Amino acid sequence: MKAATFSTRDRILGAAERLFAERGLEGASLRQLTAEAKVNLAAVNYHFGSKDNLIAEVFSRRLDQLGEDRLAALAEVRVDPQPSLEALLRAFVEPALAMTIGESGGSAFMRVLAHAYAEQNEQLRSFLSERYGHVLKTFAEAFAAVLPGISRETLYWRLDFVAGALVYAMAEFGLIRRRPGVSEKAHRARAAQQFIAFAAAGLRAG
Amino acid sequence: MKAATFSTRDRILGAAERLFAERGLEGASLRQLTAEAKVNLAAVNYHFGSKDNLIAEVFSRRLDQLGEDRLAALAEVRVDPQPSLEALLRAFVEPALAMTIGESGGSAFMRVLAHAYAEQNEQLRSFLSERYGHVLKTFAEAFAAVLPGISRETLYWRLDFVAGALVYAMAEFGLIRRRPGVSEKAHRARAAQQFIAFAAAGLRAG
DNA sequence: CTAGGATTTAAACGCCCGTTTGAAATCTTC
DNA sequence: GAAGATTTCAAACGGGCGTTTAAATCCTAG
Description:
Two copies of one chain form a homodimer.
Chain A: H1 8-27, H2 30-36, H3 43-48, H4 51-77, H5 85-102, H6 108-119, H7 122-146, H8 152-170, H9 184-204
Chain A binds a DNA duplex through helix 3.
């Protein structure tokens, strides 16, 4: 545990993500957070100005990365002029899954996101759509191209359902838990496979 | 506004549901709550013992009712010895939708539920599965009966996805908002129709 | 009508919160 | 290695939190 190899700022961000996920944005206090990061209480206000700014920074870091990864995966899929619906879904889902297994936080950030949704914070919501809307729009176009028989309204409803199921699944809200014998990686791979089959069928619905 | 026609206890429960949904279980304070209910601060602890007990009571009231309604709807559908998957889904979805439009709180309680999920409170989670697990189990059996080709594992995954999409849709997290001209009732009916088509296709997936 | 239990009330309890402060320590730069 | 900027630190600030208390009020049964 060489925490000292990370800067104060980075240690705060890491601890913030972990604790926000565990206890929610309001539930995680700066005192808990700075203790976990082994950093002085005042450091948050020194480096970020306020707790709210810290929250915004946590979201920006992750969502910018996730958006880039998703668009990159989509571009790769689109090398094929007529990609399958499943391939498009994979481009959407796998960067999110990779984020939740690749990092120390596990599914932490997805729970932060779920909290944010549940808190119905309008400020945060508009921040998200401003910062991230173009990614969803690009994917919506791509889905529309491979689902020619579907009205725009129906497509948007179904994308909403897909997003809901994905957050729910990735935050591990559901009944299904990873069994002791199964590695987290294998569990996630299974989740992705199940999810893509389910979502593809739902999007294609009669 | 004749608040006085409701008992102190009932006014607390009503205000609690509204505020918990707006601000989360931790975000809503007893001072805000008792002010909204036009009730003395100490009344919560007098009538419920603690804030935690009040939270449990809010969940119990709603979930007991929802569980009963869903099982009643399921029983009705099962009069037909070979009900359609869509009919089973309707029995699952419509009591939930009816709850969110019938009451003053709108989609309030669903957001309370989403908060609870996001908070990953183990105590609450086991409370939910203890109190509510039999309803989900009964539905799982019914779904299994009309989806003979599907393994148990796959069925559980898909039910998880369905639950996630439903909570997400009902809490109005998504991009789709009710348009000014459309009544809430009509909006919900459209949501139910879209959701059932999507979920049925997803459950049947190849 | 009145005694006694149920309810409501105002006030206070100790605790944790986010933020601010000004001094100490640590890095930079010449 | 001194000067100056950056970063860390302990301490304190005012304020909101859930809960408890004891007195005041209301209700009801004898």
